């Protein structure tokens, strides 16, 4: 997609004004912690995507780009900006992106064309090109649920989890609605049965209805369906007057209410109430538990009230799955409290159910009472009903606990309603006995009213059941299909991940394998440990291996997500813990597996930085070293950062002591790398410390041997060109060794090159030039990578570089058979 040519940062984060030339190649920034490296990472992320992950997202509190992205001394937000010149991979054209903190969402594009706008839109949609070590290890060590979310966000699959959560919530709500509808149907059915005096279930509803219709001289009904009118024809029957209150129905309703209330006087109910009170009092005694219960209730309410866009408590915008994840994680920490609450609510459930039954019965009796008793008594009747409903709501709310305890201790007493019910019973009994025809018409009329309610409730329940079934099926099907699709993706990613990791650890984990498995909202990740089984990465692997796993997983994910578009990545100190022996493999992997990707790497380790140069991962001119940082000036860097330029600059300034120290340190580093690369034999030191005298001569002698072997092999193939090339290299090497007077410096190893510091400027200049020429011959002239024997163990097969321009084979031509 793009390669960054130049980056300019002005009054942004800790940078006052700085221009970096990346030249479209890999780029490294080295410096101690606190010298401003992360400011460059932030600037790259900001100019390309409009975001700064360090200032936004989960856990960032009151941080913001507009307030905290500008340099602390920057007066106006428009003066804080970043500008990048990028080259488009497909067209090889360049575009300039300039973004200010004042208007981060409206960058300036030059040129502003359809093509450049598409590129910018893609970059803004893929801010995952910037990765820190913390994010790398999160992919590996995170809990399965968090890993699933992070990986799906990286793969742009986060809407999968969002929709899964929404479908789950819809299914849960539909199931709850179905239960409520079923309860309403049950209540309506009981009321209908009482209207027909079917409490004993001696007859069916259609039998009772037909008996009453026969009394009225009406034809019988074959069945009672949703559209059946059981009072059909009653109005045309002459002389039939329907009473305001059906005596039989009123008696049945009144008896049902009394039976429901009588349950509360039984020992079982009182035992349940007492046990619930005792448990709630125990909970109330522990303030910490009580506070946790209150907190969990608040979180649960927040989930119920979340509108999909903003937190219902603070109004902060959140994505659906992000909010659910945050609140869910907080609730997960309250597992014990949730269990205690659930046990208490379980004990409360039968008490609430009993009170609801009483309320339903009371509602059936209400119309009879309204028609038969005085307005004054109805006021008392109404107050008792309100008190009952209030008690139900209080117990269902559960919190505050003290209010629940107060309600349990003072439930509306059925005895308070007893006088009213007695008066109502007298009024019902005092009703005149209707004629058979009037009684039949009245019963059918009352039953029709309740049948209408039952039909409505039944239709509502059927609709709710259908919706719940569909919602459950959709939720299940969506989960199954997405899990299958994700499994296919993760299978591809885990294969690529394992392949990359094996390249880094071929010396001891060449059979390494991994397993990624999606289960609902979790992504399980296990890795092989020396064929002892698969375990979580944090179980047995070292921190360094975990770091390299994180990098390999990120690269595998990006490979899947972007493919050929993966042309730019920022790795912010991601390999801090990788051991030295595997860093070379990391650089080789980045070079060979991602040759079209421009990596910007930061590190505080100068050895790691030198290795990136030595292996050819980063050109020498594409390394900047931050020496220090101050709030007034920002990062202080060596603009001319090539080591030879620094040494030669010191010589030019007459600072031979500094130049000598730098030269010796660099030569020791190069010699150590060369011994590793050439598989040189070094005299063993028990303390593990080696200086230049221990390393340089074995490295050079080994290269001599390799050239000699290469000449012999080339001659067996009659490859005159290759033979002449290797001979020329060997001659040049011998000449450079002589020029650097290696033997002279090795006469007295105790000197350790310290005598250099006594040279003057004229004496030391030629020494620097001689060693620079010598070191150059250890590297490929094309890619500047150190020559290396492959494989690193066993019989040597090649001496080659990263680009392949230099390749000396050690495989002899087979002799012809006799």
TrEMBL record:
It comes from the Bacteria. InterPro entries: P-loop_NTPase, RecF/RecN/SMC_N. GO terms for biological process: DNA synthesis involved in DNA repair; double-strand break repair. Residues 4-615 form the RecF/RecN/SMC N-terminal domain. This is AAA family ATPase.
């Amino acid at each position: 997609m793009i390669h960054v040519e130049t980056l300019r940062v002005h009054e942004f984060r800790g940078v006052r004004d700085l221009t970096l030339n990346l030249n479209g190649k890999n780029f490294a920034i080295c410096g101690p912690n606190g010298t401003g490296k992360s400011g460059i990472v932030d600037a790259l992320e900001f100019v390309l995507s409009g975001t700064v992950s360090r200032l936004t997202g989960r856990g960032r509190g009151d941080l913001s780009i507009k307030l905290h992205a500008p340099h602390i001394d920057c007066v106006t937000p428009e003066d804080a900006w970043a500008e990048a010149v990028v080259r488009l991979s497909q067209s090889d054209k360049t575009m300039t992106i300039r973004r200010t903190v004042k208007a981060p969402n409206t960058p300036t594009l030059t040129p502003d064309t359809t093509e450049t706008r598409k590129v910018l839109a893609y970059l803004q949609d893929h801010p995952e090109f910037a990765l820190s070590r913390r994010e790398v290890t999160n992919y590996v060590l995170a809990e399965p649920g968090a890993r699933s979310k992070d990986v799906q966000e990286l793969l742009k699959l986060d809407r999968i989890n969002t929709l899964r959560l929404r479908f789950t919530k819809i299914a849960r709500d539909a199931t709850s609605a179905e239960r409520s509808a079923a309860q309403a149907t049950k209540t309506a059915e009981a009321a209908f049965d009482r209207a027909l005096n079917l409490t004993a279930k001696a007859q069916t509803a259609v039998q009772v209805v037909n008996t009453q219709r026969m009394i009225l001289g009406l034809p019988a009904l074959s069945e009672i369906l949703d559209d059946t009118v059981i009072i059909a024809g009653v109005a045309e029957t002459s002389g039939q007057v329907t009473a305001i209150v059906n005596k039989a129905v009123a008696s049945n309703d009144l008896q049902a209410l009394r039976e429901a209330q009588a349950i509360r006087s039984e020992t079982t109910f009182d035992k349940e109430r007492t046990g619930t009170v005792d448990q709630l009092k125990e909970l109330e005694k522990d303030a910490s538990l009580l506070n946790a219960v209150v907190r969990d209730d608040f979180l649960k309410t927040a989930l119920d009230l979340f509108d999909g866009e903003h937190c219902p408590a603070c109004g902060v915008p959140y994505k659906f799955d992000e909010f659910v994840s945050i609140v869910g994680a907080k609730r997960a920490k309250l597992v014990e409290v949730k269990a205690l609450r659930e046990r208490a609510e379980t004990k409360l459930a039968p008490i609430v159910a009993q009170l609801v039954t009483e309320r339903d019965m009371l509602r059936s009796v209400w119309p009879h009472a309204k028609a038969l008793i005085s307005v004054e008594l109805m006021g008392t009747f109404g107050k008792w009903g309100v008190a009952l409903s209030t008690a139900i709501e209080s117990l269902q709310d559960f919190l505050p606990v003290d209010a629940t305890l107060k309600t349990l201790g003072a439930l509306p007493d059925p005895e308070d309603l007893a006088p009213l019910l007695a008066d109502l019973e007298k009024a019902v009994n005092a009703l005149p006995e209707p004629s058979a025809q009037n009684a039949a018409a009245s019963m059918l009329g009352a039953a029709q009213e309740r049948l209408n309610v039952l039909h409505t409730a039944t239709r509502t329940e059927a609709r709710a059941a259908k919706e719940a079934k569909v919602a459950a099926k959709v939720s299940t099907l969506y989960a199954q299909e997405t899990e299958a699709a994700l499994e296919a993706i993760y299978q591809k990613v885990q294969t690529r991940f394992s392949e990359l990791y094996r390249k880094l650890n071929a010396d001891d984990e060449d059979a390494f394998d991994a397993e990624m498995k999606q289960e609902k909202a979790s992504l399980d990740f296990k890795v092989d440990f020396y064929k002892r089984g698969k375990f979580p990465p944090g179980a047995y692997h070292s921190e360094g291996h975990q770091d390299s796993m994180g990098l390999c997983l990120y690269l595998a994910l990006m490979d899947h997500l972007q493919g050929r578009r993966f042309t730019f990545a920022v790795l912010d100190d991601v390999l801090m813990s990788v051991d030295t022996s595997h860093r070379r493999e990391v650089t080789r992997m980045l070079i060979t597996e991602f040759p079209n990707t421009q990596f910007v790497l930061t590190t505080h380790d100068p050895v790691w930085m030198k290795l990136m140069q030595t292996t050819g991962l980063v050109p020498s001119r594409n390394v900047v070293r931050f020496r220090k940082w101050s709030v007034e000036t920002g990062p202080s860097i060596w603009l001319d950062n090539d080591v030879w330029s620094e040494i030669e600059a010191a010589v030019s300034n007459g600072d031979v002591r500094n130049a000598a120290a730098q030269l010796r340190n660099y030569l020791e580093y190069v010699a150590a790398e060369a011994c590793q690369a050439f598989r040189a034999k070094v005299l063993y030191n028990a303390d593990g410390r080696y200086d230049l005298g221990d390393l340089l001569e074995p490295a050079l002698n080994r290269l001599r041997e390799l050239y000699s072997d290469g000449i012999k092999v080339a001659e067996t193939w009659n490859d005159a060109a290759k033979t002449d090339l290797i001979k020329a290299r060997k001659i040049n090497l011998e000449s450079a060794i002589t020029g650097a007077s290696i033997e002279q410096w090795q006469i007295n190893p105790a000197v350790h090159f310290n005598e250099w510091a006594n040279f003057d400027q004229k004496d030391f200049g030629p020494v620097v030039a001689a060693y620079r020429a010598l070191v150059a011959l250890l590297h490929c002239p094309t890619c500047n990578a150190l020559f290396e024997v492959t494989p690193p163990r066993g019989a040597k097969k090649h001496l080659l570089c990263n680009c392949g321009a230099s390749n000396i084979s050690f495989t002899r031509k087979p002799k012809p058979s006799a």
